[in-house]
Amino acid sequence: MTPSSANAATGTPPGHRQRRHDPDRRERLIDVALAVIAEHGVAGTSHRRVAAAAEVPLGSMTYHFAGMDELLEAAFTRLAEHAADAFDQAMMQARTPVEAVEAIVGLITGTVLNRREAMVATYELYSLAARRPEIRTITNAWMARSRRALERHFEPDTALMLDALIEGLTIHRALSLKPMPVSTVREAVQRIVAS
Amino acid sequence: MTPSSANAATGTPPGHRQRRHDPDRRERLIDVALAVIAEHGVAGTSHRRVAAAAEVPLGSMTYHFAGMDELLEAAFTRLAEHAADAFDQAMMQARTPVEAVEAIVGLITGTVLNRREAMVATYELYSLAARRPEIRTITNAWMARSRRALERHFEPDTALMLDALIEGLTIHRALSLKPMPVSTVREAVQRIVAS
DNA sequence: CACCCATAGGTACGGCCGTACACATGTAAT
DNA sequence: ATTACATGTGTACGGCCGTACCTATGGGTG
Fold first, then answer.
1. Which residues of chain A from 15 to 74 reach within 8 Å of chain B, CB to CB?
2. Domain A21-193, what architecture?
3. Model confidence over A68-99: pLDDT tens digits?
4. CATH number of the domain at B22-193, please?
5. Does the interface ipTM go beyond 0.85?
6. What are the Cα distances from residue A57, in Å, to A38, A40, A48, A73?
7. Which residue from B191, B189, B184, B181 is spatially nearest to A157, judged by alpha carbons?
8. Best mutation site among B34, B167, B176, B178 for testing chain A: the one with the most A CBs within 10 Å?
């Protein structure tokens, strides 16, 4: 479907996009911003690049976001919420600690999403959070949700250690580009869980 | 009378640095660049900012570094080497696995690995590495050295898991800003090394 | 229908950026 | 002492940036 389909009577003027009345443009811009961050880092993210990637005029950026900070905050909030949602769901589907262990192993070793994209954005988020308190509310909420999800199956201290192990193994996998051996990961998780 | 002749006898003229012949300027610039990255992120790092922080003229940047990429690469290489040196040394000083465990606990809960400056730069490095293969050689070398250091005391698989746990716990500590309880950390490390 | 204003679109301005480059100067070799 | 070269310094240029601001438009409401 082309942009001109809605334009039944008059025909499409040459070179003129027909995007008037685009109700979830702001939502779409946040998603596109996240993709741009993943590809170019925060350092390479600009209003112009996001606008171009979303096929939207530059002015739309300043209309929907008060400034660069608001755009970044919205994008990273979405990243954290999506990741926490996925983790929550995995933990909720597990009915026993044994199933939870298997779910965790699957998350670490599996290829749930384009690992690369999410990882780049995640590290950018950590770096920003370490520097700016208002961003830290995002990471704090994310960490709290992860721990709560784990505490459905494990003791608080165990949940904390598991969370750290997951984080570390994910980093190793992302940076080494090699798949983590399932047996090794399962062994590690089981050692932490064993009490 | 030229400004330089005026100060011949008196020493430092007002407003004029006497920095000609500064043999380790390049080394100093790398350190300063790392500090700037830690404070402003890669996104906020520029030749001008580094030059100002090092009290060096802008032209000195392009003289000592072929471009921004070379500066970043040099800075992150230094970061990785310093961190790996510290970890190596801690592992070498431990004579038994038990001492090694205590050394690891000390690193995680202590102040050595957790300088905010180092953490911010580390996440920026990870993000860059996930995006650019030539930067990944830095992280690969770092990871390899860490694992080799751990393998002085533990089995390869155990070393891998320990490395991941250390990474994850360090992140947690850095983002939560709260000190990690020593007993919890020791418990986690001991569970991983227990065979 | 007529109106209004939330949304869309275009453009200009001042600023910081990387980089190039011409020039200055100190050092070491002859 | 002269020279050659490595290093240091200042400045200018073109480009991308965030943002402000003005205009256009069309959907919902009376």
1. 39-43, 45
2. Orthogonal Bundle (1.10)
3. 999 999 999 999 999 999 999 999 999 999 99
4. 1.10.357.10
5. yes
6. 21, 20, 8, 21
7. B184
8. B167
